[in-house]
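User: For my dataset I need records formatted as: sequence, then structure tokens, nothing else. Please produce one.
Assistant:
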Amino acid sequence: MHAFRHGTTTTPTAVVVPPSLALPVIESAFPRQLHPYWPRLQEKTRLWLLEKRLMPADKVEEYADGLCYTDLMAGYYLGAPDEVLQAIADYSAWFFVWDDRHDRYVVHGRPDDWRRLRHRLHTALDAPRHHLHHPDPLVAGFADSVLRLYGFLPRTWNQRFARHFHAVIEAYDREFRNRTEGCIPGVEEYLALRRHTFAHWIWTDLLEPSAGCELPDSVRKNAAYRRAALLSQEFAAWYNDLCSLPKEIAGDEVHNLGISLITHENLTLEEAVDDVRRRVEECISEFLRVEQEALRFADGLDDGTVHGKELSAAVRACVGNMRNWFSSVYWFHHESGRYMVDTWDDRSTPPYVTNEAAGEK
């Protein structure tokens, strides 16, 4: 099912993309699609947030659909079995709630609370079954979503996912320290860190259960496949930075590619915006080139055997969903209430976050 320039909430409205953020090539060359399970997905993730106490009932009622977390995943993992997409969407919603908790701990200067949460997440990642009833809803919800994700593919995939997410937790710790110390990382340091805080390899790993197949190392490490995967994620991270730059400068933030460019490359704000936009556009143009290489690689895997045919189809599905990430991320940034800062009563506090949900007493 196709979705055009409209929100996917129950009362769709036309989306106006500011000229400074408009990418005509995305709107024309990356047709947007949604998984047909999306309406049910939205409903069940809303219920999961309530069941796991990750958001208060009134906030779920008022904001959950408008945050468009399920839209983002339903526009990415096309072809995934419904139960796989549901597990991914719940995990994604958890990820956003975790990101909000991390932000509140920074804002309120709570390093001890962050240290405890960091340790608990590392532990729950390795033994999720033992943390399903943890008193902190964020830890229990994480354990639930991870345990479900671990049920789709072999143990080797689970171990890789865990390894990648341990790195994400540590990157969030580095960001916590940078923000509390007012340390703006250099450009290359920031780009490397961003690949983890944006969870590049997590979202790429999840392409595999969506395609119903754990890909062998020889496929995942193929230059064209790996480059296409990285470009789709870099686009998402840098476009997020482009959209967030004005509000993050206003909020004395330190984690944004534009801020690193201004600080360490002595660019003006206008020059930094142009630089980030150039990088975003280069991601798109290079992806369009390497996508064809990755698809030819996928075709070459079909050696006439049943395994070869299945592997070829799985790789084509993964590469196709890398393409879907571009349009899904693009429209998410212009539809989700997460980015409508100008409509908030307090620009420093998202209206969908409460002290209770953020781990406050």
